[in-house]
Every structure is written in C-alpha cells, then in structure tokens.
Amino acid sequence: MYLCFDLGGTNIKAGIIDEVGNIHIKKNIPTKVEGNLEGVLQQFKEIAEMLIQETNINSEQIRGIGLGVPGFVEMEEGFITEAVNLGWHDVPISKKLAEYVHYPSFVINDANAAALGEMWRGAGQNHKDLLCITLGTGIGGGVIVNGRIHNGTGGYAGEIGHIHVKQDGRQCNCGKIGCLETEASANALAYYGEKAAADGESALLASIREKTGSVTSKDVVDAARQGDAASLRILDTAAYYLGRTLANIYMVIAPKRIVIGGGLAAAGDILFDLINKWFNAYSFEHLKGQHIIFPAELGNDAGMIGLAKLVDAGLQTS
Questions:
Q1: Residues 99 and 166 both lie in one domain
Q2: What is the DSSP string of 63-128?
Q3: Overall number of domains in the chain
Q4: 142 and 165 fall within a common domain
Q5: Which domain holds residue 34?
Q6: Are 129 and 144 in contact (CB under 8 A)?
Q7: For residue 288, which phi and psi values (nearest 5 degrees)?
Q8: Positive or negative CA dihedral for 271, 275, 276, 278?
Q9: Residue 169 burial by CB count (10 A; 0-12/13-18/19+): exposed, middle or buried?
Q10: Which residues contact 164 (CB under 8 A, 6 or more apart)?
C-alpha cells in the first residue's frame, strides 16, 4: 500500500493506493496553511493518520509515500527547485517529509505524476514512449521515454505550456510573451470568449456574459457546438497552436502516443478533431491517418495513480 499526496495551490488530493493501482480511499482536502511548508507537512501527517484509520489497515502495510507538487522537481534528490504557486524555493522536501511521516518518500511534478498514471493504468497502457498533456487553467506536460519520466535538468522537462507560439501574444504568468497556455488553455478560451462578447463578434457569448457576468471555456465550447462562428474560430485557433506544437514536439521525441487530459479535454471530439487536423498539417506526411492523439482515461485520478507507480518503481530500485 502507498500513501499518495497530490498537492495543489489550495487543495490536497490524498489517498491510499495498492501495488496494482487500485484506489482504496481518496480525499480532497483544502490546505490549512497555504504555502506554509511546516503547516503543510503537519497536515500530511494528520491526513495519513486519518486515511489509515478510515481504511482499517495496519500502518505497517504502508510501504512508501508519493508526493506530487506543481513545480520543478529534482526527483532523484527529492528536492523542489521551485513551486511558484506555493511560494517554495530550494526545498529538500523528501528530507523534510521524513520528519513528519516516517516512510520512504518520492516526489515528482504533478503533471509528470499524471503521465505515469496514464502510462500504467490509462490511455498509455502497454506503451513506453508517451507525451502526456494536461489542458486546464494552464497547460502541463509529461514526457515518458522507455517507461521512465524524462525529468531534465532542474526538473524543467515537459513544460509544454511555456513553449513560445505567438510573437505578439499575451503575457504569461511565467513572465514571457506568447506562451502556448496563453493561446490554448481553458483560461485562453475564456479570455478570447470574453473579448468576442465585448467586441460584438458573438451575440450568443454576449448573452451568456450578460446573464452570468462572465464567459467560461465551457461556454465557448458549448457555443461552438451550437455553430457559433466566433466560438468555432476561438476553438480552432487554440487547436491550431496545440496541433502545431505537438507536431513539432513529435519530431523530437516521436512518442507512440500523445495523451491529452485535463478539464478542457472534456470538450471531446469537437476539440480533438481540430487538434488532429492541425497536427496532421504540420506532421510528416506518412503520419497522416495514424491514430496518435488519444484522450486521457483516468480523469482526476491520474496523478494519484501515477504517484503510486512512482513509489512502486522507487522502492524496487532503492
């Protein structure tokens, strides 16, 4: 059994998962002290005790801990280089965690954890070379080569959302201009949907904005399904940047599959068909018609299941 903590900016997903990826219990718990390292570690201890008690398992059955964080991670050292949303810099997290919860611990970037989960029990099963993308508020990525996460120097590998795609684009939270996530994330769709409503380009989006006070990415997708021209253009533009970027990445790592998850992926075929269109437009000719891009299968559980795989692999090699 493995304890798994998927740490977000405001919430902790926590659970106990067994050696074959079955989730025995899971909780979504608000962090008590946002960004406070010692406070979060103390909460991990309390959550661990609660989960063990609620599942009635012997604490000795827990073999290790998997921790996913939204930031840059040196996996082998168990060291967080930077987690901007948490305000953490240069944190020896595995060493610190051992002071609170006395099991071997393994740490990874949260998007990489989701990639491991999809490889083990999701859309990437039986494939050792994968590119996994999460489309949500931002855009995350995980690269798996020969069954292992390619973490890169400083944990910077897989930062797909910060590939530059537009010369005169908007400023990203990372400080750069024209990053992929400023043009193709859920936030990007909401931004351009708001703009289309305000500029009079879409009566439907303007009506939604008047009724609810804002336009969401889901509103844009729903309007596109109804044939709204501005929404279709916004969705197609996002798919263009995604498809072109994925085609370029494919030229470098040639994954067996590209797996796309996250909240925006719930748009389904209307989005995936457009991504495939642009991916094919910028790919090798012989790749056209091949099924390379797949929707993720594990939903919000991908990270948790991936953390269990991380611990399992780590214990076998340690």
A1: no
A2: -EEEEEESSEEETTTTEEEEEGGGTEEEE-HHHHHHTTS-S-EEEEEHHHHHHHHHHHHSTTTT-S
A3: 2
A4: yes
A5: 2-118+300-317
A6: yes
A7: -60, 130
A8: positive
A9: middle
A10: 176, 177, 178, 179, 180
Q: Which two tokens stand for residue 71?
A: 């930031």
For residue 232, give every residue at least 6 positions away whose Cβ sits within 8 Å of its Cβ, in sequence order, or none: 224
The string of pLDDT tens digits covering residues 5-52 is 988 767 888 999 988 888 988 888 887 766 688 888 888 888 888 888
Residue from 152, 149, 172 nearest 162 by CA: 172
Co-location of 145 and 284 in the same domain: yes
Residue for token pair 């439907």: 204
CA distances from residue 261 to 82, 131, 247 in whole angstroms, order as listed: 24, 11, 17
288 and 148 belong to one structural domain: yes
- At 149, list the tokens: 């996460």
For the entire predicted model, the pTM comes to 0.85
Tell me the HSE value of 189 on the side-chain side, using a 13 A CA sphere. 31
* pLDDT tens-digit map of 269-304: 999 999 999 999 998 888 777 889 999 999 888 989
Give the rounded distance of the alpha carbon of 132 from its chain centre: 8
Helix (H) or strand (E) holding 97: helix 93-98
Report d(CA 64, CA 304) in Å as an integer.
13
Q: Indicate whether 134 and 213 sit together in one domain.
A: yes
Answer whether 306's CB lies under 8 Å from 149's CB. no
Sequence letter at residue 123:
A
Residue pair 255/131 in contact (Cβ under 8 Å)? The answer is yes
What single DSSP character describes residue 119? H
From the centroid of its chain, how far is CA 250? 19
CATH at 276: 3.30.420.40
- Residue with the two structure tokens 């936030």: 187
Pairing of strands 23-30, 11-17: antiparallel
Number of CB atoms found within 10 A of residue 24's CB: 14
